Structures are given as C-alpha cells and as structure tokens.
Amino acid sequence: MEKKRMVILGAGESGVGAAKLAQKQGFEVFVSDFGGIADAYKADLQRMNIPFEENQHTEALILNAAEVVKSPGIPPKAPIVKALVEKGISVISEIEFAKRYTAAKTICITGSNGKSTISMLTYHILKKAGLNVGLAGNIGHSFAAQVADRHYDWYVLEISSFMLDDMYEFKADIAVLLNITPDHLDRYDYKIENYAASKMRIVQNQTAADVFVYCADDEETKKALQAVNIQAKQYPFSIIEKVEPGAYLEENTIYINTQLNNKLTMSISDLALQGKHNIYNSMASGIVAKVLELRNETIRESMGDFKNIDHRLEFVAKISDVTYINDSKATNVNSTWYALESVNTDVVLIMGGVDKGNDYTMLKDLVKSKVKAIICLGKDNKRIHEAFEDDVEVIVNTFSAEEAVQVAYHLAKKGSTVLLSPACASFDLFKNYEDRGNQFKAAVKEL
C-alpha cells in the first residue's frame, strides 16, 4: 500500500516534532522551511532520515501532499499556503495533528497575556498532585514529539491564536481564556474582532462534559462571548465581583468554588506570584485544579511555592540600590502595562523592537506617573518617541542590550527600577525574546 505523503512547513520545534510523529505513524514525510534550519533541528531530521529543504519552498515537492502541517509562524497569506488552499489540500496545525494520536485529556490555555505563566503554574500544580502530565504547545517541547515518544494522561497546552487558526476537529477538555487585548493585529487585518474570533476557537467542539474558564472582568472577552454558543460548563473568575461557581477576590482573599461545599480560600499574600494580573493567573489555575478535584492543601502549597518562568518579570540584580528586572517576554503593549503596574518604584523603562501595529495609549497614564526615562532598544523607535515625547523628559535610542543597560545605569536614581519590558517583538536586533533577555542579564552582570 502506498504511504500517504505528509508535508511539514517550518522546521522549528513544532515542525520537527510533527515530522517525527508523522514518520512514526507511517507517513511519507517531507519538511520544507523558507528560512534556514537551526543545526540542532537539522541533525534531528538527518538522524530520522527525513528529507528536507531550507531557504525555499519547492512547489513540486509540497503541492503533492495528502495533508500539510504548518508552523504557527507562517501567515495564511504566504504564497505557498495560498497555493495549498487553492488546490484543496488540508492545512492544519501541529496541535491538531498530534491530538489525533493521543487519548490524553487536554487543558488548553490561551489569551493575549499570561498564558505561559498559567501553563507553567497549572503544570506545576498537577505534577505536584501526582498526575501523569506533559507540558507543550507554545512552551517546552513539541506536543507531537511528546505524543510520539511518551505516554501522558494529561497535557497542559499553551495555545496561541495562530495555532487556533489551523485547528478544526481538535477539542479542549478544559479550555482557559485569560484575556483578549490587541496583539498580532497585523495577522488579523488590524481588526480586534478578527483576533477575538480566533481566540474563541478555544471552545469549538466542546460539549456539556467539558469545561470553559474565562475572565469575567475582560471587556473584549465579554463581547466575544456574545457571538459564540458555548456548550461547556462555565467557570468565570473576577477580582471585581463575586462569581459562583468560579473564583473571586474579597478583602485580599481568593475564593475558588467549583462544586458545593468544598471552597478553596487563599490569602493573596501567600501567592508565589504577586501583582494584580497574577491574582487572575492564580485564580485560573486554581479553578482548573479544583475541577480536577485536587486537594485544597496541594493547590495552596503549589500556588505558594511556584517559580515563574525566565524573562517574565524576572529579578536580575540589585546594584547601587537600583533593581534590574528582565521582562523580555513582554512582546505586546498589554504585557508592558502589567509589568509597569506591578512595579512600585520610579522606573527607567527599556522598550522597543519590531512594532506589531502597537497602540501605546493604554501605557500613557502609567508612564506619566512612574517612568522617569525611556531607553529605546530597536532599529526604528519613531513610534515610541511620538507616543511618549510629552510624558517623559528623557527618551534615548540604543542599538544593543549592553548600550541600553549602560545608559540605564547612568539615568537610574537610587531606589528605582530598570525594567526591560519591550512591548515589541525582538527580531530586529535579537534571535528571539530569550536572546534579548539573556543579553540584558549578561550586560547587567557586567556593571
């Protein structure tokens, strides 16, 4: 019998993982990347004897596929994707593909901000409670590679809107939507409603046996909910009003209630993650844990001893009474808003990079009240200057992490905070946000 041909577009973590699973499932596999392939991934493909090409997409080798798994980073407007769609060839995400080959239950977390933190926190709680759980999606190792190699009963999946756009049959057993704020609007015709519709795909195919967790305080989520018929059992969370079942805040105590008579309470001062936005994060993970009927004691313990991910409000050093914080993962305006909101001192803010159609208006009040200087770190900083020239006395351009840190060192006064929270993507000067964060940390340690 002739093998079905599976083509993978993109040879990063998700693409190479999908290739591995496709090979294991007996497909004839070909991998194509329009850019260069990293040495480590190239070595993986060579070891598996999977043919591949880089720096091009050869149509003759792609348009004969039975199905195509596309990396989330490749836009639907890419010529090769348009050609596939015109030929009627199915184009899906790695998440959609991998789910076909596992009976594991999935906890799927999406939102413009906080999804990495909540994915890690939820994984931490479940692991500590003794569940056999994997972590995948936008974080950690590829979902497809884990389905090929390991056996988990549960997966915590961090899912971006780009992944959701290529998901059709996939169903989340527990879906979590944290918030919807303008991000990646360049992929959605600069319309927030298109982006919101993409995020709402997290509930598609859910039944009454499934669970949907969402933020009742988020305006765009409330709007988006009106356009969708949700079958799943709903658990909202709020710090403004009392919601039951669900989670709410009252006098510095979180209450989480998913079933009668077994409420979890926890003082916010006992949470490992501090700051208003992290109350939401802890509530969302807490609801998931309660839905799974984990013990209150385990949940409390896990929410109290969790260590946050690198590059997300990560303390780097205190030098001459100035605190340096690495929030390189803040690649959109809303993330930077959260970062500024959680710092209680004067701030020297390092921001900039590849602007994704950002609207900086939401930062203006916080910048006026807290930010004493802005250090731009990027090739084109015109829009940052235009947005904040009336709000901040000093705006300086820099073109390397080392230069930005040196300038910050001279501008920061005792007792203040130097905060790297770019609100932009990193690809103009760095490989990715991790590279940007690591270069920042290295430069701070050189002071």
TrEMBL record:
The pathway noted for it is: Cell wall biogenesis; peptidoglycan biosynthesis
- The segment(s) forming the Mur ligase central domain are 109-288
Question: Single Gene Ontology BP term?
Answer: regulation of cell shape
Tell me which residues make up the Mur ligase C-terminal domain.
311-424
Q: Which residues bind ATP?
A: G111, S112, N113, G114, K115, S116, T117
Q: Where in the cell is it found?
A: Cytoplasm
* Top-level taxon of origin: Bacteria
Principal EC category: ligase
Which GO terms of the cellular component aspect does the record hold? cytoplasm
Name of a matching Pfam family: MurD-like_N
Q: What's its catalytic activity?
A: UDP-N-acetyl-alpha-D-muramoyl-L-alanine + D-glutamate + ATP = UDP-N-acetyl-alpha-D-muramoyl-L-alanyl-D-glutamate + ADP + phosphate + H(+)
Stated EC number for the protein is 6.3.2.9
For this UniProt record, give its keywords in alphabetical order, as a comma-separated list. Answer: ATP-binding, Cell cycle, Cell division, Cell shape, Cell wall biogenesis/degradation, Cytoplasm, Ligase, Nucleotide-binding, Peptidoglycan synthesis
**What are the protein's GO molecular function terms?**
ATP binding; UDP-N-acetylmuramoylalanine-D-glutamate ligase activity
InterPro entries (alphabetical): Mur-like_cat_sf, Mur_ligase_C, Mur_ligase_C_dom_sf, Mur_ligase_cen, MurD
Q: Which coarse location class applies to the principal site listed for this UniProt protein?
A: cytoplasm
So what does this one do? Cell wall formation. Catalyzes the addition of glutamate to the nucleotide precursor UDP-N-acetylmuramoyl-L-alanine (UMA).
Q: Which family does it belong to?
A: Belongs to the MurCDEF family.
Name of the protein: UDP-N-acetylmuramoylalanine--D-glutamate ligase
What gene does the UniProt entry assign to this protein?
Answer: murD
